[in-house]
Design a protein that fits this description.
5-stranded parallel beta sheet, 15 strands, globular, binds ribose-5-phosphate
């Protein structure tokens, strides 16, 4: 096997190659003045199984196309099998027609990757597992929540209350609970499909005087975590922390979250940022050897 670290996940790809003891194929990558991407493989991939490691956080359209270009280059130069390792899978939240007239964006992404030569996909904490059925090849999601919970456990937060900001994320909190050994619960979140505005119902959760860690898959604008943190404070939580797998952190998301009373935001290098304190490399390298 060889790893091809894409421009959006160069460090993560190199870490994975190092852990596996395999070659990281270097890539010549540039953006033309008009914005088009150019890729060229420098190493050989003939008769090799290759894994392209490239996240698709913003600018997601460009990064998705880069995955496709790298896959095409690998296929054209004789790669035997191509796995796309896409830690943050863009468009996964638009997996059905919610309002009349919409596209199913993730299906378009799946067809594009297939056409480019991808044979299988590994992603991390995809928003809804049902999304994987849209891919015309084997597609799998793995969870980084135990790694995030482990980070907090090592920092002395054993028995902290693991909170999910909505019922769809409850399983994340349950997974964290198995590592932290405390309790878990969730809030009722509603999002207006037209305005995107979110509201949360105050639920009687027993968090008074406790440390709460909010677990979510994605932090985009920070609105969800900020609202959940405020709710926790109102319910008397002593300390509030936030953990997420994919820190998109759009605009002033981080400021919003910290102003809502969150002490620390911890995320993975699915999306490289200064809060990416937990690496996915061990998890993904294990997955690639399965
Ligand atoms: C949605 O249900 C996801 O799990 C996240 O809660 C959401 O994407 C976070 O978005 P934002 O940070 O903009 O509230």
């Amino acid at each position: 096997m060889k790893i091809i670290p894409g421009p959006a996940s160069k460090q993560l790809g190199e870490k994975i190659a190092k852990l596996l003891g395999v070659e990281a194929v270097s890539l010549v990558f540039k953006t033309y003045p008009d914005g088009e991407s150019y890729v060229r493989l420098e190493g050989k991939v003939r008769d090799e199984e290759v894994a392209i490691v490239q996240t698709t956080s913003p600018p997601q359209d460009t990064r998705l196309l880069q995955v496709a270009l790298i896959a095409d280059a690998a296929r054209r130069h004789g790669a035997e099998k191509i796995t796309a390792v896409v830690p943050y899978l863009a468009y996964a939240r638009q997996d059905q027609v919610f309002l009349h007239g919409e596209a199913i964006s993730i299906e378009v992404v799946a067809r594009m990757l297939k056409a480019a030569g991808v044979d299988s996909l590994i992603t991390v904490n995809v928003h809804q597992e049902r999304v994987l059925a849209k891919f015309p090849f084997p597609a799998k999601t793995v969870s980084a929540v135990p790694l995030l919970a482990q980070y907090f456990k090592q920092k002395g937060f054993e028995k902290a209350f693991a909170l999910a900001p909505d019922d769809g994320a409850l399983w994340l909190a349950e997974e964290a609970k198995t590592v932290l050994g405390g309790e878990c619960g969730y809030l009722e979140k509603h999002r207006d499909l037209y305005t995107g505005k979110i509201t949360m119902e105050m639920k009687a959760l027993d968090v008074g005087g406790k440390t709460v860690i909010i677990f979510d898959d994605v932090v985009s604008t920070g609105g969800t975590i900020a609202l959940a943190a405020r709710t926790m404070r109102e319910l008397g939580a002593d300390r509030v922390h936030a953990a997420c797998v994919h820190p998109l952190l759009i605009g002033d998301a981080e400021k919003r979250i910290l102003e809502a009373g969150v002490e620390e935001i911890v995320a993975t290098d699915s999306v490289p940022s200064h809060v990416s304190k937990v690496s996915l490399a061990p998890l993904l390298s294990r997955e690639l050897t399965r």
